[in-house]
Amino acid sequence: MIRVMIADDHQLFAEGLSQALNSLPDARVVGVINSGPALEDALRTQPAEVSIVDIEMPGGDGIAAIGSIGNRTRAIVVSMHASDDQKERAAGAGAKGFFSKAVPLATLAAAVRAVADGKNLIQLSEEERDQVLDTYREAQLDPGAASLTAREREILQLLAIGVSATDELADRLYISQKTVKNHLASIFQKLAVSDRTQAAIEAIRLGIAKPS
User: Fold this and answer.
1) Contact predicate 145/208, CB 8 Å
2) Is the pLDDT confidence value at 70 over 90?
């Protein structure tokens, strides 16, 4: 799961971006703040692999904040002021990506994945950048979720539609109740959850199962 911090003083944009990123199975917005100094403060207590940063904000611009943050996060600048001069400033401050606010969500999501994976997009030409982003278009599940077996996914789909009793799960799948419990224990471990309700919610969020 990629933890993302958003620093932007345009409330509607920041809230919309937060909701959009939270809808992805491999990203979670851990904070939305509205100034450069607030970004520095937030990262002291809430780690984030990637920060999406606007340029013009109260208390100093976002590029200055990126320069002060160092390696506590990997920054992507997303701004209405996407000029070459600002891109050079962002690169000099250590930003790993630079986009206009008109960027499609799918492209920005791919950039978040790429930057979290260590890619430096800001140094690439647009053509080179787009080639890299094409390899990050698909959501990247955590290793635990990616390792779910076909049977465990079947159980998660049943949980998602409200079938949660051990005996009913066993009857639906033609397996013993003990086997159901073993599968559930494995599911809980892989998804880092503690009960069937949490497992169902996480499976729906990850796109592994669909609710009725």
Assistant:
1) yes
2) no
Residue 103 token pair? 């960027």
**What architecture is the 143-206 domain classified under in CATH?**
Orthogonal Bundle (1.10)
Average pLDDT, the chain: 92
CATH class of 2-134: alpha beta
pLDDT tens digits along 46-68: 999 999 999 988 877 899 999 88
* β-sheet bridge partners, residue 44: none
Burial 1-14 (b: 16+ CB within 10 A, else e): bbbbbbbbbeeeeb
* pTM of the entire predicted model: 0.76
Sign (positive/negative) of CA torsion 2, 146, 154, 168?
negative
C-alpha to C-alpha distance for 87 and 123, rounded to whole angstroms: 10
The predicted structure's pLDDT at residue 179: 96
Strand segments (E) across the chain: 2-7, 27-33, 50-53, 74-79, 97-100
- Asked if the domains at 2-134 and 143-206 fall in one CATH topology, the answer is no
